[in-house]
Amino acid sequence: MRHGRLPFILGFLVAPVTLYSIFVLSPYFQTVQLSFYQWRGFTKKRWVGLENYDRMFHADRFWQALEHHAIMLVTLPLATIAFALFFAFLLNVGGKGRGGKTSGVWGSSFYRVVFFLPQVLAVPVVAVLFATVYRPNESGLINGFVLKAGLEEPIGFLIERNLALASLIAVLVWQAVGFYVVLFSAGMANIPGEIYEAAELDGASKVSLFFRITLPLLWETIQTAWVYLGILAFDGFAIVSVLAQDNGGPDGATTVLGLEIYNNMQQSRYGDAATYGVALCVLSLVFAAFTLRVTRRESYEF
Predict the structure, then answer these.
(1) Domain annotation covers residue 137
(2) Were both Cys, which of 35, 175, 238, 256 would link to 123 (CB 3.0–4.6 Å)?
(3) Which SS3 state, helix, strand or coil, does residue 248 take?
């Protein structure tokens, strides 16, 4: 029976591994290969070696995009995880249940649905929604209020260079928070309630409960969330392409690598697009490996 186990396992793996190789691994290898060629789609490929990479490293838009990704890698995970942890803590540990047991605030089941709602909306829908929210006149949701409140000039969320990127990051945070509220809530649900109750009997405040119990026991979940949000920070193409002014503007203030890939493909510069794609892939892998290494801590068992 043991001798026949290996062929049996391999028989089940052949189909999924083959499909994965064809539809996932093969495009990656083809992209790396294409990055060493100049190709306009209908012409013959011409080998250029590292010329595409040299042109990319000397492009101002590439370094602008990297700067924006660096900002997003810090602000997007920090803001999203901070809000999600706060809301999840309130929904699971912020109140008192029957008999004085630790539980979520009143109406926590309803709030979970409200927080998760943005996650079920398609990204283009979210972008169109916030295009209305950020509209730079009295018809915009925010400017409509601030102008009526006495502000003389509307706020140019997407047309002012100093505000454009922050406005886009706010949209990404708004959309992502709900998913991580649910993720952290699931992690908190696995923490025995007796731990919280014993700490409260010893006089621990809600702040102490969060920093001394919840945060250490959720560390692995937070670590995973940081990696996922970092990958989201390297993306952002859909939000930027719909909301940003003048294709990554104003004056390149919101451009990202995904948008540069799209721009090169629109100009039929597929070799350059592949080069940006390779750079995006490498940066994502390096970030994930670095984050998992730096944030690694001893696991807690309970």
Answers:
(1) yes
(2) 238
(3) coil
Residue 218 inside a domain? The answer is yes
pLDDT single digits (tens) 67-93: 999 999 999 999 999 999 988 888 877
Nearest to 269 by CA among 282, 258, 280, 260: 260
Short-list 282, 178, 289, CA closest to 226? 289
In a domain, 31, yes or no: no
Domain count across the chain: 1
Residue 108 to residue 113: CA distance in whole angstroms: 9
Spatial distance between the Cα atoms of 270 and 257, rounded to a whole number of angstroms: 14
Alpha carbons within 13 angstroms on the beta-carbon side of residue 229 total 32
Which three-class secondary structure state does DSSP give residue 262? helix
CATH number of the structural domain spanning residue 182 = 1.10.3720.10
Q: Give me the chain's average pLDDT, please.
A: 83
The alpha carbon of residue 283 and the mean position of all alpha carbons in its chain are separated, in whole angstroms, by: 14
Q: Please check whether residue 110 lies inside any domain of the structure.
A: yes
Residue with token string 């940003």: 244
Give pairs for 185-192: CB < 8 Å, separation 24+: 185/88, 185/91, 185/92, 185/112, 187/217, 187/218, 187/221, 188/88, 188/89, 188/92, 188/93, 188/214, 188/218, 189/92, 191/217, 191/218, 191/302, 192/302
In this predicted model, what pLDDT tens digit does every residue of 107-129 receive, in sequence order?
677 777 778 888 888 888 888 88
Residue 284 structural domain: 51-294
